[in-house]
Amino acid sequence: MTIFQKIIDREIPAEIVYEDDRALAFKDINPQAPVHILVIPKKPIAKVADMTTDDKELAGHLIWVAREIAADQELDDFRLVVNNGSGAGQTVFHLHVHLLGGRGLEWPPG
Ligand code: AMP
Question: Which of 29, 84, 99 to mutate to test the pocket of ligand 1 (most atoms within 8 A of CB)?
């Protein structure tokens, strides 16, 4: 079981900022920007590559939730990041969208 599943199950604490029937969002424990929130599906999908056709609407919903949180935080500029696989920097194998904002963000990322 991943640490994010434990957050969904309320087995470990997190600073939850949004929840609905399909998604949960909470503050990243090691923030890389003044706003750094993780949006995750409640469905245990390990990574983007593991999504199926059935998950297409859920994929859109996660981006929509991130958009709503960015609006709540009054962020004009922000970045959504999804790392897929350890070589791309993924460390927790429960799908998550990073919402980063509140500072200037360089491009390209490392
Ligand atoms: P990634 O490297 O894309 O898999 O991102 C995983 C993120 O989860 C990292 O930014 C971590 O700081 C964050 N993280 C790990 N454990 C926790 C936790 N218990 N609560 C909140 N965020 C966490």
Answer: 29
Q: Which atom of ligand 1 approaches the CA of 93 most closely? A: 4
- Whole-angstrom CA distances from 41 to 35, 44, 60 are 20, 7, 11
In angstroms, what is the span from residue 62 Cα to ligand 1's centroid? 17
Tens of pLDDT, residue by residue, the chain (110 residues): 999 999 999 999 999 999 999 999 999 999 999 999 999 999 999 999 999 999 999 999 999 999 999 999 999 999 999 999 999 999 999 999 999 999 999 999 98
Task: Indicate the pTM of the whole model.
Answer: 0.98
Six token digits for residue 47 = 């990574």
96 an active-site residue? yes
